[in-house]
Amino acid sequence: MECLEEQFGRIAANVNVDDTTLTLSTIKGGLDAMHNTNAVVVLKEAKDGKSYTINVSAKYNMSVAFWISLAISILCMLILVIADAAIVFYNKKQIETAIDNSLKAVVDEID
User: Fold this and answer.
1) Which is it for the CA torsion 41, 44, 45, 50, positive or negative?
2) Do residues 14 and 24 lie in contact, with contact meaning Cβ atoms separated by under 8 Å?
3) How far is Cα 32 from Cα 41, in angstroms, rounded to an integer?
């Protein structure tokens, strides 16, 4: 039980016994409160009826906060890419205008 508490946090008293299966729900506090964490302990009775094998597994689901932060990050990256493209386009227009003005000045001097 101590090992489960170290790994999964505080264990809730939500126990369902169905023949040889014991399911424990766990609760984690703080930043992990949004994770859905389940610890499953399977008890299998041996032939002599005295020894048991215990298997423990955990399931974590991505939290809503993770998906929101990922969406915001992607949105910010798209905004930066669009802004960069706009700056490049603006600079290209500035360079073209400067070249045109220089060529016009040269042509005017030749004439």
Assistant:
1) negative
2) yes
3) 21
List, in sequence order, every beta strand (DSSP E) within the chain: 10-18, 21-27, 38-45, 52-59
Amino acid, single-letter form, for residue 89 = F
Residue 30 CA to residue 27 CA, distance in Å, equals 10
- Residue 104 lies in domain: 62-111
Per-residue pLDDT of the chain (111 residues; tens, 9 = 90+): 444 444 444 444 334 444 434 444 444 443 343 444 444 444 445 555 544 444 444 445 567 778 888 999 999 999 999 999 999 999 998 888 988 888 888 887 776
- The pTM assigned to this predicted structure is 0.38
Rounded CA gap, 1 and 15, in Å? 14
Q: Structurally, how many domains does the chain consist of? A: 2
Tell whether 34 and 66 lie within a shared domain.
Answer: no
